[in-house]
Amino acid sequence: MIHFTTAELLELPRRYRANLINCLAGFKSVNLIGTQNETGQTNLAIFNSVVHIGANPPLMGFILRPTTVARHTYQNIQSTGHYTINSVSKAMMAQAHQTSAKYEVGQSEFEHCGFSSKYLEGFSAPFVTESAVQIGLQFEEEHYIKANDTRLVIGRIQHLRLPSGHIAESGHLDLEQLDSIAMTALDTYFTPTFLARMAYAQPDQPPQQIK
Amino acid sequence: MIHFTTAELLELPRRYRANLINCLAGFKSVNLIGTQNETGQTNLAIFNSVVHIGANPPLMGFILRPTTVARHTYQNIQSTGHYTINSVSKAMMAQAHQTSAKYEVGQSEFEHCGFSSKYLEGFSAPFVTESAVQIGLQFEEEHYIKANDTRLVIGRIQHLRLPSGHIAESGHLDLEQLDSIAMTALDTYFTPTFLARMAYAQPDQPPQQIK
Question: Cβ of A122: how many Cβ atoms within 10 Å?
Fold first, then answer.
């Protein structure tokens, strides 16, 4: 085993450390966050930090880094209260990654990266037509992370759009069938394959596979 | 497409809704969080909400649900300041899932689920010997999420232990080679396969695959 202390991690070359630390949490979700400002200028940005917060009420969160791209997303959420979280399939991977490029103000990633927007009445943020899972959220609360100037942004699900035929009787959504991808670091993409569904764990019973 | 509004989501059966909403963020990381209380009683719990917060300083976060199992983890972190985040491989999946069973106070998931603990000098939380990636963290800050009584807990990496030969020149950790797994919902596990590593995106260039 190799052992790094905090001091040793801080001495590593910047890019090397960023890649290494970004891999430590494990596989991450891949999503596109869609917003628009008050004049109708749209923004679309890839995020790998979307996290489940709760099912009742239905809440999702994401970590907002102090970057230029992220700031458009944040400013738009602040001014309109609305944003969308859209899933990324294998076929969308390269275009979705391209949304991380620093386009100039006034240019939309929808247009430059080849995505189509869709709107629902009474909801100002654009959904990504190409995404299988399209979630419309209302900003709920945010938390400023003092340690590194980032933010946890939490929203309440107002709209959920899904292709029919992909929800199991149990409520599970078949992300593999929808060709959803996962990632590590900031640039490496993976296709997950079903391994097992486990039964609810009981202290007096050994672990049991449902399927 | 099926369309659910907030009201329609809230009318769904509880389990069905929990499974569905838990799948929406996409694939999640799988980690074991190890702690011990002031009398040396250890605790080990599976978490699917560990999220990268930043590389400089090296910070990781996780969402703590208001559950019994999670509370031991939280109480131990509060009282000692230390915890470990440990990766889960395919071979460890069933045992790791079993840590979600509600064992009685005084019983350790290390013993009941078949994991070995390891300690580093000056650091009170137990590492999981079986895990390829073993991270020791010092509690940094926490944020109470008013919307659903959960918490974002953030720690600073103090120790990082990894098997040698799995870090690329770029700093990327080969999670596929380490047999790391991903999950959806609360019970469904996946093995991710490498798809592509993309180049840093530039606004005037099309997306480019590095490998």
Answer: 9
**Six-digit token pair at B153?**
């807990």
Q: Do residues A125 and A139 lie in contact, with contact meaning Cβ atoms separated by under 8 Å? A: no
Average pLDDT of chain A is 95
Measured between CA atoms, the residue of chain B closest to residue A21 is B55
Nearest chain B CA: its distance from A207 CA (Å): 6
Contact A192 B196 (CB under 8 A): no
| Residue type present at position A102 | K
Nearest to B183 by CA among B17, B18, B22: B22
Q: How many CA atoms lie within 13 A of A69 on its CB side?
A: 20
> Using one digit for the tens of pLDDT, what is the confidence trace for B96-108?
999 999 998 889 9
pTM metric for this prediction: 0.96
Measured CA angle at B51 (ends B85, A210), to 5 deg: 75
- Indicate yes or no: CB of A147 within 8 angstroms of CB of B61: no
Tokens (6 digits) for A131: 């995404």
Which residue of A55, A163, A185 is in closest CB contact with B172? A185
Where helices occur in B31-161 by DSSP H, the ranges are 68-80, 93-98, 109-113
Interface test with B, best of A5, A9, A27 (most B CBs within 10 A): A27
At residue B156, what are phi and psi to the nearest 5 degrees?
-105, 130
CA dihedral angle for residue A156, residue B3, residue B21, residue B196, rounded to 10 degrees? -100
CB-CB under 8 Å, A156 with B145: no
C-beta separation of A145 from B60 below 8 A = no
Closest in A22, A53, A102 to B150, CB measured: A53
- At residue B181's C-alpha, the angle toward residues B52 and B63, to 5°, is 40
> pLDDT per residue over B133-166, tens digit each?
999 999 999 999 999 999 999 999 999 999 989 9
Q: Which residue in B55, B85, B97 is closest to A201 by CB distance?
A: B97
Q: Which of B211, B207, B193 is nearest to A99 (CA)?
A: B207
